[in-house]
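A common beginner's mistake is to predict each chain separately and then try to dock the pieces by hand. The better habit, illustrated here, is to supply every component at once so that their relative placement is modeled jointly.
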Amino acid sequence: MPKIVLGVCGSIAAYRAADLARDLMRAGCEVRVCLTDSAQKFVTPILFETLTGNPCLIDTFDEPERGRMAHLDWARQADLLLIAPASANTINKLANGIGEDMLTTIALAFEGPMMLAPAMNPAMYQHPETQASLNNLVEHGATLIEPTEGDVVAGESGQGKLAGNAEIVGTALALLNRSNLLAGKRVLITSGPTQEPIDSVRFLSNRSSGKMGSALAQAALLMGAEVKVIAGPSMAIYPRNAHVIEVRTAEEMHKAALAELSSCDLAIGAAAVADYRPSNPQEGKIRRSDDAISLDLVPNPDIIAELAKSGKRTVGFAAEPSTDLTVAIAKIQRKGLYAIAHNDVSNRGIGFESDKNQITLIRADGVQETSPLASKLLVALWLLERIAE
Ligand code: CTP
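With all components supplied together, the output reads:
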């Protein structure tokens, strides 16, 4: 049974750590909790001791078993150190090698994978010191689950909300059962929508959220790859150890993808590329009149088909409005792909804008397999394991 030390810091999101501990236990892990001093202002040790059946540590000199030096004992026994919620204070301490409470001391003594899921006020999150510390920790191998954007306490909003438990648990399990199938490989991912200008203020686009592309980037990194993402405009947050090239139009995405092709081993088209663009976008704003107007549209390049011509392993996504696989199968041949992931976007619980997904992977040799309905990260790991072989 994998052993996780769950570090809980002082944040309003500390209450969510109780559910997180339960979810990790349900997923088959043994959980031991270590609270910082400030976490105790929000939650109590007895809550976690009752939930986990294990002692909860706080002070550097806590000794549930005398003579064992708990910080070393816990660090030696743990398979994963997960800090959720991680506060700015603890993140900045960890990045500077400071061990002044039990949690930071365990972290110093721990040699396995560390995962951080921050939660804090958006200004504290964006503070240059916090960002520099996070970059430093990620550079040294920590896995970061970026906080999401939304309303936080004190009437503010921004990036600072603790990520969802499903994403945290999914990533923890991926780290524990890490497959290194993509070690040394370079993966190129197109992600998100494209925007095709009509005039200076309007564009044609689609509902792609970029979340699947972001999950694929995280999954490929967890499996040891170097990752480049060519990202159309969206609210998606990409892992900071992925190299992200931001583009707007399909033509820009096409150009960037071709430029990166020679330095990649595997290309995945998760972008919802606009198939057409206005042939003659107007400067300024098209003014209102009572007359009907029409847009002349010209086709955009088929990016994934262009990438596939290189002979590199190329995988597409087929966003289809039904469970019928016929069109997706035809796209494998038409685009010259190794495989395609069929995505039923008519099902509101999965696909566009949703946090969950379910895909049917169809390979060019005809082999088909359907993934579980799960978080986009787990589906991304499932997919990569099948196309990395
Ligand atoms: N794709 C691409 N460039 C395009 C259109 C699609 O790279 N101009 C890629 C997508 O990233 C995806 C795959 O092709 O990996 C299938 O996309 P999809 O929108 O399902 O298919 P289309 O080729 O656009 O065909 P249709 O709109 O008729 O379904």
